[in-house]
Design goal:
368 residues; alpha+beta; 2 domains; 10-stranded mixed sheet; 4-stranded antiparallel sheet; 10 helices; 14 strands
Length: 368
């Protein structure tokens, strides 16, 4: 096996990936799929696993015992870049098994290294806002989820053993590098020896956005993100309702973060996301009353005064003197024959002294 670690990074072409790792050419594996897609990467024989370095803006980290690397490549596009990787590695590359204690120590060492390099827990806009300690309680409860355990929480070994045999941590570095770390804990029935198969799923913000909008909207996410965004309060209630029933306290001061591409393309600032206070209303009640046409604003948490603007923009409404959130035709009831085309970012005009009252612009489609 070459001495030089295999090197990967996001947003490079498959050609660049292979060029950067020319000494690993014999292990290349391009797996062609239907619809012009190929999984580019590497496969290594058992007990011949490689070392790997993942490089990202301002940093890098290394993992040993890499068994495979796969990345989605759209071969129909000449400028296709690799925006995600699936990496599998194994701790016990030189033996037939590993103790739970050793696997625990190695994982805690990895977490400590990543934390020291500036990685944080990826508490996305549908995750319950819990303290690190309560995130563990939520993880092991039958009504909780294996996805929201904070990697910075200092697990004891006994707590480590309470995790399900398939578990996942979600991390991010800044707002453009995201990584899930998971393990599968297994016991060989013939030998009784323990094995931990580790996985990294590394993505950029484009892949995160596509996950939010779903597979059917991967290629037109800009058009429908505002519609999806208005539904996100319900997603969060879905996770925070059971947390409250467990007696856990929601940390309402935990901030959301902004995906730069969303802000650039839609004007929506996700760091100003308006949450529903789960202590005031349940998910089921919110949906029922919202669908009946009730104004649910009184159930939003206390937020900066910009919160109605954010929600209204997400629903295709925009106040006067605010930037247009989406290019297309808009109209206002405050002025007859007001329908006009505005580009995203244009300041929506006012009509003072009208007979209607407050001027609110409403989206009226993209066609003239």
């Amino acid at each position: 096996m070459p001495d030089k670690p295999l090197e990967i990074s996001l947003n490079i072409s498959a050609k660049e990936l292979y060029k950067n790792n020319s000494v690993y050419k014999k292990y290349q594996n391009a797996d062609a799929q239907p619809m012009g897609v190929t999984f580019q990467g590497y496969d290594f024989p058992r007990f011949q696993e490689s070392n790997m370095v993942f490089k990202y803006p301002d940093g890098e980290f290394k993992v040993d015992g890499v068994m495979s690397i796969n990345s989605y490549d759209n071969v129909k596009k000449t400028d296709s870049l690799l925006t995600s990787y699936d990496v599998t590695f194994i701790y016990n590359k030189d033996s037939d098994g590993i103790t739970d204690k050793d696997a625990y120590n190695k994982t805690m060492q990895l977490f400590k290294e990543l934390q020291g390099k500036g990685w944080v827990s990826n508490k996305n806009i549908s995750a319950p806002r819990l303290s690190a300690k309560d995130s563990f309680k939520f993880t092991i409860d039958d009504e909780g989820s294996k996805y929201y355990l904070d990697f910075k929480y200092p697990l004891t070994f006994d707590e480590w053993m309470q995790l399900s045999n398939i578990h996942k941590w979600e991390l991010r570095y800044g707002s453009n590098v995201f990584m899930d770390i998971d393990f599968i804990r297994d016991t060989n029935p013939d030998t009784g020896k323990r094995h931990y198969l580790m996985g990294l799923t590394i993505r950029d913000q484009v892949e995160i956005i596509k996950e939010i909008v779903g597979p059917d909207n991967r290629h037109n996410w800009e058009e429908i993100y505002a519609e999806i965004y208005s539904k996100i309060p319900i997603w969060r209630l879905e996770s925070e309702d059971p947390a409250i029933k467990m007696g856990l306290k929601i940390q309402q001061d935990q901030p959301d973060y902004t995906l730069p591409l969303v802000l650039e393309k839609t004007g929506i600032d996700t760091s100003k996301f308006v949450s529903i206070d789960p202590y005031k209303i349940t998910k089921e009640e919110f949906i029922k009353r919202s669908e009946a046409g009730e104004d649910m604003t009184p159930y939003y948490e206390d937020q900066p005064e910009t919160k109605p603007e954010i929600i209204n923009q997400a629903r295709g409404r925009c106040p006067t003197n605010k930037p247009c959130p989406k290019s297309g035709y808009w109209h206002t009831l405050a002025k007859a024959d007001s329908r006009a085309y505005f580009r995203q970012g244009d300041i929506m005009p006012d009509y003072p002294n009208n007979n209607w009252g407050e001027v609110i612009w409403q989206f009226d489609g993209e066609e003239g």
